[in-house]
Amino acid sequence: MAGVESLLEKIEKQFENMPKDVMASKLCGVAEVMSNGSVRLSQEQVAQYDILLCRFASEIEEIALSKLAFILAHEENGPPKMVEFLARHEDILVAGPVLAGSPMLDDILLTQIVQSRPQPHLHAVCERATLSEIVTSALLIHGDESTMRRIAKNPGASFTEQGYATLIERSKADDELAVCVGERSDIPAHHLKILLDSAADHVRDKLIKSRPAIASVIKSAVTSAARDVEETAPATSARLTEAHEKIAALYRSGRLDSAALVKLAKQRLTDETLIAMALMCRVDPGAAYRAIDAFGHDITLMMARICELTWPDAKKVLQALKGPMSQADAEKARTVFARLNPQMARKVLQMRLRPGAKGSVQQTTQH
Fold first, then answer.
1. What span, in angstroms and rounded, lies between the C-alpha atoms of 39 and 26?
2. Distance CA 108, CA 204 (A)
3. Which of 181, 222, 255, 332 is deepest in the core (most CB within 10 A)?
4. Domain of residue 352, residue span
5. Is there a domain that residue 343 lies in?
6. Is residue 349 within 8 Å of 302, Cβ to Cβ?
7. pLDDT, tens digit (0-9, with 9 covering 90-100), for 174-221
8. Residue 116: pLDDT above 60?
9. Residue 161 CA from chain centroid, whole number
């Protein structure tokens, strides 16, 4: 310990006259001593070393900074300001090791770097052992195709619902990404079905080979929604299959939005309206049919709120599915609809879609 303290004092006293290569060598030497575990510096000593490094940072050549970055990349008790300096460095050879491995970088700093640095820096971030939803959301916004694939391949990455939706949307034009997303063990079932619904045959074949355990899911995913509708809806299977194919094509093309939904409702196309709303809510149409059958058309109001419809448009959808309403029924529906926000509506809907769910949606929203 005394040797390290002496070295720090010596460097601090002599830094003005010390050659750059010697300066860098001595600072890296201290880092190596810290890294190999033979000496543990106190917080005060680490702070002193941090001050020295930051003072000399602009004087140290990038090749030496790169060496320092490799040494400090996995240090849990490294000099924090210098680690941040290395992570923000414009040279990927300097920043890369720290971005990929340093446990000292928090989500805020990583997100700032993702937002401000070029793709090689984002690629390095994708290599981290774990990535929070905050960081993956930033990567999905700012990343290129290569970043998408790297993050999808990272088993330690966590994604929000919107994150998975973004990956699946991007994978429509990228078969390699589709395979990466489909191979994730943590991909929710409903997202897997959406992915497979638009995937090419050779993508499904690759997924079957790489994940034999889900072969049955893959083989049935494309037709599952139509089959569920066929089993539960009051119309003929041919009619429902035709309706599902029509709305699925609209969904794949990116033209299924609230305006398209309301247009279907105005035309009194009952099956198309429900299938469209279910796909917009990312739930199986068959499950939506069963929920409405079990709990009534408050389920329709839940989905309308998730689709962020206004009450006049939600009323049109409700009338298309339920039929004419009395003034009293319309006012009751408006009251239930007004009580909900999209987040609450999704939570309630998920509860109602669970097998064996009991209780009315209206009762749930009153708590």
1. 16
2. 37
3. 181
4. 232-365
5. yes
6. yes
7. 999 999 999 998 888 888 888 877 788 888 888 878 777 666 655 554
8. yes
9. 6
